[in-house]
Design a protein that fits this description.
The complex is a heterodimer of chains A (about 675) and B (about 325).
Chain A: E1 2-7, E2 16-21, E3 27-32, H1 45-48, E4 64-67, E5 70-73, H2 76-94, E6 99-102, H3 109-122, E7 128-129, H4 132-135, H5 137-146, E8 164-168, H6 172-175, H7 177-190, E9 193-197, H8 203-207, E10 210-212, H9 219-232, H10 238-244, E11 245-246, H11 248-255, H12 260-267, H13 271-283, E12 287-291, H14 293-296, H15 301-314, E13 324-327, H16 334-339, E14 346-347, E15 351-352, H17 356-366, H18 379-387, E16 393-397, H19 401-404, H20 408-417, E17 420-425, E18 437-440, E19 449-452, E20 457-461, H21 474-484, H22 495-505, E21 522-523, E22 547-548, E23 567-572, H23 588-593, E24 598-601, H24 603-609, E25 616-621, E26 624-632, E27 640-644, E28 672-678
Helix pairs in contact in A: 2-21, 3-21, 3-22, 5-15, 9-12, 9-13, 9-15, 12-13, 18-20
Chain B: E1 2-4, H1 6-15, E2 21-27, E3 33-36, E4 42-43, E5 62-68, E6 73-74, E7 83-88, H2 90-102, H3 110-116, E8 120-126, E9 144-148, E10 153-157, H4 160-166, E11 172-173, H5 176-187, H6 192-205, H7 211-218, H8 226-229, E12 237-243, E13 248-254, H9 275-293, H10 304-308, H11 315-326
Parallel strand pairs in B: 2-7, 7-8, 8-9
Antiparallel strand pairs in B: 1-10, 1-11, 2-3, 2-4, 5-6, 5-13, 9-10, 12-13
Helix pairs in contact in B: 6-9, 6-11, 7-9
The chains are: A alpha/beta (about 675), B alpha+beta (about 325).
Amino acid sequence: MKKVLTTCPYCGTGCMFYLVVGDDGTLLGVEPSSEHVVAKGQLCVKGWNAYHFVNHPDRLTQPLVRKNGKMEPASWDEALSLVVSKLKETQAAHGNDSVAFFSSAKTTDEENYLMMKLARAVFKTNNVDHCARLCHSSTVLGLAATFGSGAMTNSISCMEESDCILVTGSNTTEQHPLIGSRIIENVSKRGAKLIVADNRKIRLARLADIHVRWKNGTDVAFLNGIMNVIISESLEDKEFVKTRTENYEELKKTVANYPPEKAAEICGITPEEIIEVARMFATADKAMIVYSMGITQHTHGVDNVKSCANLAMLTGNVGKAGTGVNPLRGQNNVQGACDMGALPNVYSGYQKVTEPDVRKKFEKAWGVEDLPGEVGYTVTTAIDAAAEDKLKALYIMGENPMMSDPDLNHVRKAMEKLDFIVVQDIFPTPTTEYADVILPATSYAEKDGTFTSTERRVQRIRKAIEPIGHSRADWEILCDVAQRAGYNSMKYNSAGEIMDEVASVTPIYGGMSFDRIDQVGLQWPCPNKEHPGTAVLHSGKFSRGLGLFSPAEYRPSAELPDSEYPFLLSTGRCYFHFHTGTMTRRSQLLDREERFPYVELSPEDAKELGIKDRFWVYVATRRGEVKVMAHVTDVSKKGVLFMPFHFEEGPANLLTINALDPVAKIPEYKVCAAKIRSAY
Amino acid sequence: MKLLTIQEVESFLKSIDSDYDVKVPVNLHDGTRAIGKLNEGSLAIAGGRIPQKITNVFFPQMEPVLTTGSEKIELPKPLSKSLFVVGFTAQDADCLKFIDRFYSENYRDDIYFNKRDGAVIVCVSGRCGADGEFLKIAGKNCDLELISDGRNYLLAIYTDTGKAVAERAGGVEADGSLLQQLQKESDALSNDDLELIQKASKLLLEEKVPDEFWATISDRCIACTSCNLVCPTCTCFDVFDRKFDDKTRRYRIWDSCQLDGFMREASGHNPMGTENLRTRRRIHHKLAADPTRWDQITCMLCGRCDDVCPTGIGIKAVCKEMVAKYGSA
């Protein structure tokens, strides 16, 4: 038996723990790290169970190639030769941009870096993106525009020292449990004020000083209403606004149109609630905003994020401990996948592909010519392009669009139209069903590398066991593909060597190396080998110089309830499962906890419809209908349904709408119109 | 009684490594203390209780129960070498005594006793706790005890099994006065926690704690299940099968009464179906049900659930709130 220090593969909190490895190479458990700065000897239920799926018999262990419509076992040589020849043929026939690459927030920094290097240096396309598009693309753009850097401004430890925490659109104790627990501790022991602005009565709402249950999708009106009160009551931080920001007059003009009465009417709450929140937030010494998908997954997601940034700047709550705008990243390495440039518009470290000097720098570093300068497809627009026959081939690493993307019937049509699909994953998924080639990858427990947590902390994962079957680490597969495609500058002896290359071309990661983060990870920006890392961003000066107030007008969501579809359907995750369920549904205790697809509805609605708890119901939208189990709970407000998207047999995303934020291209997972009926 | 330097303790442990499966407190990669083999990290005997429950050497988080092939059923085999486990605190030894009883009194759990039988239990106590804390001297429920005087360790022998192996230890003979002095310090340790938990137990047995109290606790419970998973007297497990091409292997894993699925019936009905009931159960079981069933409170005050709970509602913290609210009634 041995114990190997690694980082949790679930949410972005970034807890480190030890994997317990049996003498036969099977994982037998986890032990929390008592020395780790975030875990502090603690874990959530998913962390405690994070060993479980690794040895599941369903693991993909052998490359598979479609022959006569059936997936047949193949050698690595055969499978990879086919991948390269098909991608090359497609590009020769339809152009470089007829091929797209989906990278993965589940894989390491090194692998995301290599995926974007493969797309750009080898296949000469910027069509590379990953699931951050579906969760925090609005954050990356919204905070980059206002602050100059699209990441969580503060550290997790700041949750312990804030005097007022506004949690909006984040079910923190379920989705980032060890961040949620710090909020609970701060509120119950230190007496911090807690404002929960969320339609659902989440656990934090039970402990909140104020719980605002606004109508889903009215975030901008709510935040503008708060800022209106702050300005009209002269509660703004005048010194901060004057010395640290610009464009204040525009903000003032916009929010002047949102007096509390008007904002409250839009939001379906009382003016007093808005006034109370404004006063509580603005008068706190150190106030912070914590948000997640409830803010970002809207057709106005970028506006929501900018409005959060506006509120923080207006009250001087940026650049110091216990404050800030704190988007909580959902995946273990979604921060890192963005940092590594697995995005269609930037290389690693957010260096723009449209800037000739940047392209030149990467051409030199990678030993290539003619890197493409046009921004590529996003995850969402790539699916649209496939449906329109503009995209012909797709290489998917560790993503599951047939579960995770909106309007699955639309995704299915797109997948069916594609000429060639490669899926590299650890388990069969609804997406692998459409693959022409399946490449078996190793899990986090079978490889080395780094994940970057929500607080920008770059941390090690370590190989604890040998690869299952014939699976190979994603980075090894990508390097092999590159070489077979005739590119010889993607050869590494170890994951550490890849990080050294990342550091050499990525200023914010300039000081990173496996040696430096051997025990404790470092927070970027960390520009050189002596730099201690950065706990709080924008201290003294914003990344862009002055913070830019970016006022936004309220725009209604794309599809609101009507007489035919009278309910508002919102989607998300539950505590025990993770995303498309690939790992948690293969973990005994987690799957036992939530075994069936379900919809949450309020006791009032259930009574009216004659639906009882655990009854089967049909939920339908204009896209389709699914059969799920009813969870009757006061977590849901009357008129609102909530469905988690983990369940293949009752996929919430069959119902969601493919309506995108115009800038970030993030889908509106949080609002669409639905109806519900008993299945009996 | 022998007095050993830490180097002599280490030499002693190494000298028996070929005859026993020696498990000791070690510092893992980032300094986390855990039970491991001598070569897994530097020896870390001092420092107080091991963060994870030390009884997991006999009842690990996951272990095979049986394997079925095409013809026969294979059961886990007894260990080829007996375990020699160093690092129990006095409270841990009390916990071990209880789970030995639990796993043998009615149905004898062979998988547990495959590892437990023949194992040598070594407690660590004295002036070697975390941050200078004095660790209570066990004096029982173990085979040997290493009692620290702040620098060296007295090797106390309590059983014939212990005596046989302790003969191999080096060190010098110490007179009885050192042990007497250390015992005095141990006896002088505060009994506040014990009194607290006894008061809480009494309140529960007398049904003086209303449902509203459990609501205030369960509001803060994020169902991480850590309290159960680190508790040395938690014995519940779930069973599941993994079906491979050529065999099916049945495993058991630690379970948690804080999960809805723990008691949910196939129908979907759950007699323990609310957070309040589950939170109440966790405390009630150790402090009210077990005193009735086993004639003892089964929280031995090891302190792990209080350390590991992310929201500060470990058993001592809850008892403190309970006694403060209802103790005077």
